[in-house]
Amino acid sequence: MTEEPSETLPASASTMASRLAFAFERLLDMPLAPGLYIVATPIGNLSDISVRALATLAQADVVYCEDTRHSRTLVAHYAIRATLRPYHEHNAEEQRPRVLHDLAQGRKVALISDAGTPLVSDPGFKLVREAAAAGHAVVAVPGASATLAALTVSGLPTDAFFFAGFLPAKEGARKSRIKDLAAVPGTLVFFEAPTRTAATLADLADVLGDRASVVARELTKLHEDVRRAPLSELARTFEEDPPKGEIVILVAPPGETDVSDATIESQLAAAMETLSMRDAVRAVSDNLKIPKARVYDLALALKKTQRSSDA
Predict the structure, then answer these.
(1) Would you kindly state where each structural domain of the chain is located, as residue ranges?
(2) Looking at the domain that runs over 11-144, which CATH code has it been given?
(3) Domain 147-251: what homologous superfamily?
């Protein structure tokens, strides 16, 4: 006898729900080996957590997190009865020996952050280094990341990027750090406090020039907002209307805004007369000193247009 679909779900949705439940139960039936598990958690939307992450948290002997009150919301939402202990920048030196002791006792230890992937602008790399040096298994349970989420929706080059975390709070130190990053041949990604967003954008424009930029706010949350404009324009926008919530700032690589699409297309058209598209993209990218990803996208569009003209 076939199973009747749920009265509240279409047959396909009911099947999907059943398979998700089966996958979760299967993971729970597989014993979790001792070790340190670096578990990514949602950056906003609680649904952005993997089945494997839930199973890992459910089976961990202890879960270390930045703020136990914050993380309790997540585990309670999924009815996980986890032992939560704090591990953050203010107590890491004190807590690290305790975590290593847990691991030495053969326990299953999970490390999570308040949001996203642990160790990305969070404490933890020293723990991972010492755990690995002591011979303990260190396992990544990947998932949500504000850095990658912002990068993928930005429209800026993704073939090379540099995550620089938070810039210094004081203007002088901030500008000095920006100067250090000016020549990085990739998209720059920063986290920033909403109260400093306008000032940081203005300093970025002052040091780097008016590069293309993006401010991604409250990613995956109810009021998600992504603004794309030159740095000076975004600086004015947020000076007049200060933002709220979690902020990610992205800045185009050097030269990205100095070369027009028309210039790239002109050089591509000439290069593609004698070279393959791949070689033409490389040649134009090297000549104009711009990311290959941008040139490649324009080459695809140009090739499509040429095919339409020949048809």
Answers:
(1) 11-144, 147-251, 261-310
(2) 3.40.1010.10
(3) Tetrapyrrole methylase, C-terminal domain (3.30.950.10)
Q: At what angle do helices 197-208 and 231-240 cross, to 10 degrees?
A: 160
Place of tokens 């002591």: 134
d(C-alpha 268, C-alpha 79), whole Å: 57
Please answer whether residues 215 and 201 qualify as being in contact, where contact means their C-beta atoms are separated by less than 8 angstroms: yes
CA distance 218 to 211: 23
Q: Distances from the Cα of 80 to the Cαs of 75, 85, 115, 178, in angstroms?
A: 5, 15, 17, 43
pLDDT digits (tens, 9 = 90+) for 169-182: 999 999 999 999 99
Q: Could you tell me the end-to-end alpha-carbon distance of the chain, in angstroms, rounded to an integer?
A: 55
Residue 208 structure tokens: 């780097």
pLDDT of residue 5: 45
Sign of the torsion formed by the C-alpha atoms of 135, 140, 146 and 147: positive
- Tell me the one-letter amino acid at 52: R
In angstroms, the Cα distances linking 242 to 229, 247, 284 are 16, 11, 40
**In this structure, what token pair is assigned to residue 248?**
């990610």
pTM for the whole structure: 0.77
* Sign of the CA dihedral with 220 first, then 225, 230, and 233 last: negative
Rounded CA separation 70/112 (Å) = 11
Q: Which residues lie closer than 8 Å to 68 by C-beta, 6 or more apart?
A: 84, 85, 86
pLDDT of res. 236: 96
